[in-house]
Amino acid sequence: MASVTPIFDKPLVSIIILNWNGWKDTLECLRSVQKINYPNFRILVVDNGSSDESVTQIRHAFPDVELLETGKNLGYAGGNNAGIAHALSEQPAFILLLNNDTIVDPDILTAFVDAASSCPATGIFGAKSYYYSKPDIIWTLGGKWDSSTSEIMFICQGEHDSAVSCVPPFEVEYVIGCALFCRVDMIQKIGMMEESFFLNFEEMDWCYQARTAGYSSYAVPDAKLWHKVSVSFGGAESPLWNYFMTRNELLWARRHLSLRERMRVAKKILRRWLPGFSIGEPGQHGLAQRLYWETTRYVREINRRRHQPYYQAQFYGVMDYVCRRFGDCPSSIRKKLIAKPDEIAS
Fold it and tell me: Going from the N-terminus, what domains does the chain have, and what CATH number goes with each?
């Protein structure tokens, strides 16, 4: 089991890295983790049912790192829950859930543990995440739900690092799952992540559960990492990613928002799927003619979207939510969402 030489006056941290068909990213992540200068941590890689050569490659490159094989893809929540359950036998004080497509700063654990010491009522802590491709530009410092627009907002996204330098830890509504540092006693009180989500919104759901139980969430600007951002699923425009985002936003809203707020979310998602309808301003053509043209265009556009994976993803996401089908995306739907580059909506 990989760790640096323990110094037992420092609390033990278990680092859990989830891998799914991404061994190249995982090896780069592990190389950065091994440079962490905190004196008491352990590393656990959870292979989430990879079908590539991940297990062989990771074991060959890092023979001293403990590797747990789930045997199938359990999703972000299920895979990390398996890692947490395994890591708890070591009796750590803290657990860091770390995406495999990240590179961490050597001081990341020191920053997290210091923040936890100074913020005893906080259960979950998040890092300052930079874009891997733009190392001095912030991807996010945490997130919040904007009830006026029914949208997720990323704090400080796109800002230059100098704009938020020397900022102490501060409270956020939720922590981004690419680096989620939490107290073990909080996990023991509220339980693990909800596996119905499978992918997306589970960390947001967990932070809201923690807040209900009396644990706040904090961003720690001194805890730094660089994130490749959605590498596994092709980025934010991937139809499969869109499926999970659509379905799970509705699930998250049902668990945490009022009926009125949930209706706003549903309307927002419906507007994304349906094209706009406008008969235009009065001119040389009469109302009936303009209405006919616009209706024809509208039907044609609906037809076109029915065959585009990007819009199909939204439709299937809504349908699976309505039918209460959660967990992984069904294989029959997954096949339909494999898009050609020119089929992905901009």
Answer: 13-227 (3.90.550.60), 239-343 (no CATH)
